[in-house]
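It would be a great kindness if you could assist me with a short task in structural biology. A protein sequence and the structure tokens that stand for its backbone fold form the material at issue. I should value your view on which stretches of the chain appear to form regular backbone elements. The record follows directly beneath this note.
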Amino acid sequence: MKIKTILVSQPEPTDEKNPYVELAKKFALKIDFRPFIKIEAVPGQEFRQERVNILDHTAVVLTSRNSVDHFFRMCKELRLTVPESLKYFCVSESVAYYVQKYIVYRKRKVFIGKQSFADLMDVIKKHKDETYLVPCSDIQKQEIPALLDKAGVKYTNAVFYRTVASDLSDIKNLAYDMLVFFSPGGIESLKKNFPKFKQNGVVIAAFGPTTAKAVREAGLELNIEAPLPEAPSMTGAIELYLKRAAKEARKK
């Protein structure tokens, strides 16, 4: 089947030069964007019931912009003053940069991983005496607590926000040749919004091992798995698939 239409289960990129625009031009594709999941805040009143005292911690581990926003939101809701001595361990430079929205940036307080959580662990291991708070979603990557446990550091996992299915009731059917997913939550949303969905030759692409696992556990065939060594981005993996499919078609 020739791919003509793609639905990407994320918000449309704001940058006009984003790689999906180039992909669409190159292969004459119609690419639509629609977030399959949304983030909901855990209210402060509900958080109190978890008996987690934010101020008992000397450091906070921030793995995304969402974790940054909801950490500071929760502190505000609970009327807590974030101590100046608090240390911030950020998974990447972009997350560390985003922290500046809330604090006066000082290098002695902000520690940065290269990109992955495993990279950040190399930094955390050098600060084993800290008591870490990990603000997270109800759907957390399993490697995060696993690596923290393995390192023997003192930490608290705390759910500050939830990942829930978006309401997609306005989409009458998924009449696309390819569906692109970036999280297990996206697959859950597919099942919730379209319980009668049958793959029937629809190409499914997934980014990351946890998303790929969710696709297979849902009984669906995974056709494109990213990142790949030769294609680290989703658009790169899709392009590789389209080129191979075109090559196979020519052979026939």
In short: The longest helix spans residues 234-251. The radius of gyration is 21 Å.
